[in-house]
Specification:
With 425 residues, the chain is α/β, with parallel strands linked by helices. The protein contains eleven helices and twelve strands. The longest helix is centred in the first third of the chain and has 38 residues, at 17-54. The chain binds pyridoxal-5'-phosphate.
Length: 425
Amino acid sequence: MLNETKELLKGFYELDDETFKLSEEVMEDIGDQFEEIKKVREYNQYKVLKAMQEARLSDNHFNWTTGYGYNDLGREKIEEIYANVFGAEDALVRPIIVNGTHALSLCIQGIVRPGDEILSVTGLPYDTLQGVIGIREEKGSLKEFGVTYDQVDFLEDGNVDLEGIKKKINEKTKLVMIQRSKGYAWRKSLTINDIKEAIDTVKSVNPNIIVMVDNCYGEFLDTKEPTEVGADVMAGSLIKNPGGGLALTGGYIAGKKELIELISYRLTSPGIGKECGLTFGTTRTVLQGFFMAPYVVSQAVMGAIFCARAFEKLGYDVLPKYNDIRSDIIQVVRLNNADEVIHFCQGVQAAAPVDSYVKPEPWAMPGYESEVIMAAGAFVQGSSIELSADAPIRAPYNVYFQGGVTFDHSKMGTLKAIQHMKKGK
Ligand SMILES: *Cc1c(COP(=O)(O)O)cnc(C)c1O
């Protein structure tokens, strides 16, 4: 580290000697972990580059159309490139998909019909999807349309209950849901191999059951994506991993051609599907973000490892551990009480390039069950590939730390969180 950096950290950024020393020790501990991450990053970078070359991407794809949006060449290129990178037959990548929940909700609604059953094989789905399905009462949920739901919980060791899947599948089961990332839960994230095993199990009982993967936060953590190991369809958010921090908004859905068609009928309308829809000048940033994504994701993962090791050293329980295999960018730190959670998030906020002077407070966010606190000093509102931290204010006081389009910034987030927790005491 340069002396100038040291001065800045101890001066402007107000790190005390103890935190500074901790940071130096953590850097020494985690070096080996970075090597594996760089290898995955390099492969994925070349995979994305290859797809862009194969699609003959050109700057006329950065223009956009008006009105109905027929023949939007940029939109078509984006979807071709996404499908190629994810080893899928087709894709929908649109700014009018407002977030990950919307992308997943479209998938489910495009596929299931009244009388069908949805089976989640990774326990309770992400908070917002509970409302979509009707696990939590919500107007317009699929439950209102006569769609039923069942779930297979994780085994005690954190693995998917493959025998349980076989038992729960029945003649009504139409769609199996797999959530790759832990979301707001203290559980291991599924590796690509775990996902493959679960899919193989489902297909061994009935190959016609459609398997959907919630791939939020998982893109580019591995050399393969769920659609490359048998998932029929998957979805995610562009203000997470695949947007590379540059996409302004949007969601993607990738999978089998016939499913993408069905889903596109919910996105626009039956018969129209994916032929319409404006991109509002977003194609260049979506593509450049996708190009940057493997690198950006590697930075976020390194930042998560730094956070894990730092809090481990401070005596906190963390998930995953700094040297565990990772399948998403999320780092969970189990704090002791609501106060620590609030100070942690305020520290991350204080490290932000945008709104660093703002103090986040807990609030009742739509779609979430308990009050939530979010640190989000991002260039794109709510972007969680940019450095962010959030936590529902409920025991056992887990805080979820993720993102950082550069490792250095993510590291600063951890250091500021530690410093704020100390001051808050
Ligand atoms: C982020 C996320 C979603 C979707 O959330 P949005 O805020 O709607 O994008 C769904 N599932 C998981 C596991 C997630 O992490």
